[in-house]
Structure formats: C-alpha cells, structure tokens
Write a structure and sequence with these properties.
9% of the residues lie in helices and 53% in strands. By secondary structure, the protein is mostly beta strands. The chain has one domain: Porin. The chain has a 14-stranded antiparallel β-barrel. The longest helix has 17 residues. The protein is globular and about 70 Å long. The protein starts with a helix and ends in a 15-residue tail after the last strand. The N terminus and C terminus are likely disordered.
C-alpha cells in the first residue's frame, strides 16, 4: 500500500505539472451501466421517465488490489409537469490517495411527438480534486513538500455539460453528451496558472426489439466515450429483458483504450430495481486483481411500476 501510495502521489504531481492543473479525468468514464441508467452520464435523460427516481451506484475497479478505484454515486431525478425534468447528483471517487467529490444539478426539457420523445438537458457541476490528508501522513511522504501542501486544499472546478437523450418509435434509443463543455477553475495555485479542459463526447445508440409471444425484449447498444485524459473506448452491449421486464441479463465487450468483457444481471420488483455487473480485463494487470464490480439500486416513487428501463411513450 505504501509503495502504491508513493507512485500515485508522484503520478498526481507529474500530471499537475505538465497540464498546468487541468482536470485529471472525466467522472462519466467510470460507469459501465450508462446504457441502462442514462441519467448517470447524460443530463438529457433527467426526468425522462414517469415518477421520481432515486438511484445509488457503487463501482469498484480492480477489486482486491490495494488502493483500487472505487466510487459512490447518489442520483435523484423526476419530471415536473409534462415537459420539465429536474435532477441532482452527488459522487465520491477515490483512487489511492487521489479523491474526487462531485455535485451537480440538472434540468431538461422534453419534446414529444407521436413517434419520438427526446429530452434536452444541461447540468451545472461542482468538482473538487484533492490528495487525502490521511495518506499524506505516510512516512514515505515529506510533510514539508510545498507541491503536496499546495494540493491538500485541492483544485475546484465549475462545469456546464449538455446532453440529449431520446427514443424513436419505442425502438431506437439515442443519446449524446458533451461533458464539461464549459469548465472554469475556481482557485489558483502559487504559480498563478489556471486549468483548461478538453471537449469530450459520449454517444449512445441502441435498438429495442420486442419478440412476439415470448415476453422478451432484446436490446443491443453501443456507447462511445471520448473523454478528457481518459482512454477512448467503445462499449458493445446486449441486454435481454424477460417476464414483463422483471428479469434482466446481458453481456458487454469493451474495445479501444480498455479491453474487457463482462456480464449483467438484474431484477425489478414493483418499484425496486437491482442491477449487478462484473467485468474482467484482457490486460496483464488482470492477474493482480479480481475484476471490476458495479452495483446499482433504483427506487421509483409514484408509479408502482417495475418497468424501470422502458421510457414512457404514452404520456402524450
């Protein structure tokens, strides 16, 4: 753990130097269940479905490895009237000594026709990157190092992100997110430099096929992620819903910056939804960890429906 901590701090200091305190990663790259719960990655999905939705997501990447990345996310979203959706999200992420705290407020406007429904939304986000003060107390760390002391207070950012999410003819699912489209650093370090950002994009395209007489929905999808200082990758997913969407299963394969394979299992009981996914990497580092786990709990208030994944098209 001490060796990992030392490497992590050196990495943070290196990136802080070469990038003039730019953002170190994009938080939306963490999730692998974004095709199931698009509100995690796309403000356009805010309030898209009926009822008020509470969602908790936990992800542990490289499980069992000391200091492995872990994140906790709590999200609320729901409609106001027939057109407006509002939401709020709080996320805590930690990788060794590096900690990220994120809070956002989102709003969307839904446009609906006989065959198409699309939500266009924006989110206002506050982010803070810090080094854990507990780990800085390690004997491997010089407590008088000015670079480390400068970063104990962290770097704070204010971001604005845009997104659109829609369903056409209750079959074609599409979405695009422009995360951190506008980003401003709220504090300055002693060298007087301020951070910049890179334009990223997340694209989502899926097709919902209902199998007649079998009470089955087959949904292949593709999620493309080009994000700031995050390896570009594509998630290829296939999801199957059974028994009036009470049971969910699926497979995923990721290509690009990360190559991994995973499976999904889920269950919907009335207003409750539970989803679990597991991924293993094809890189050599997989031999040092137990893979990646992601868990989502969802509760829908107000509809009494167990169909948490199907957008509601009949509210016209």
């Amino acid at each position: 753990m001490k060796k990992l901590l030392s490497i992590a701090i050196l990495t943070i200091l290196f990136f802080g130097t070469v990038s003039s305190q730019v953002r170190l990663h994009s938080e939306r790259g963490v999730f692998t269940q974004g095709h199931i719960h698009p509100v995690l990655i796309n403000p356009g999905a805010t309030g898209f479905n009926k009822g008020q939705n509470l969602l908790f997501n936990y992800r542990n990447t490289w499980a069992s490895f000391p200091g492995s990345p872990s994140s906790y996310t709590f999200n609320y979203d729901g409609p106001i009237g027939n057109r407006i959706g509002i939401g709020a999200q709080l996320m805590s992420d930690r990788f060794a000594a590096f900690e990220t705290l994120k809070g956002l407020l989102s709003v969307s406007y839904n446009i609906e026709s006989d065959v198409n429904k699309v939500g266009v939304g924006l989110s206002l986000e506050y982010l803070q990157h810090t080094i854990s003060s507990d780990d800085v107390g390690s004997p491997l760390v010089d407590p008088n190092d000015q670079e480390i002391l400068n970063r104990l207070d962290g770097s704070q950012f204010f971001d604005l992100s845009l997104g659109a999410y829609g369903v056409y003819d209750d079959k074609i699912i599409y979405g695009v997110t422009l995360p951190s489209l506008v980003s401003a650093m709220l504090n300055e370090f002693d060298n007087g430099t301020q951070g910049g950002t890179e334009i990223g994009v997340i694209g989502h395209l899926g097709y919902r096929h209902r199998v007649p007489n079998y009470d089955m929905i087959i949904e292949p999808s593709v999620v493309f992620k080009y994000l700031m200082l995050t390896p570009t990758h594509v998630d290829l997913n296939i999801k199957v819903d059974l028994l009036d969407e009470a049971l969910t299963g699926g497979l995923s394969y990721t290509v690009g910056g990360d190559e991994r394979f995973g499976f999904l299992a889920g269950v919907n009981l009335d207003s409750f939804g539970f989803y679990y996914s597991y991924n293993i990497s094809f890189h050599d580092f997989q031999s040092y960890n137990n893979g990646s786990h992601e868990l989502t709990l969802k509760y829908n208030i107000g509809t009494g429906s167990k169909k948490t994944s199907k957008p509601i098209m009949e509210d016209k």
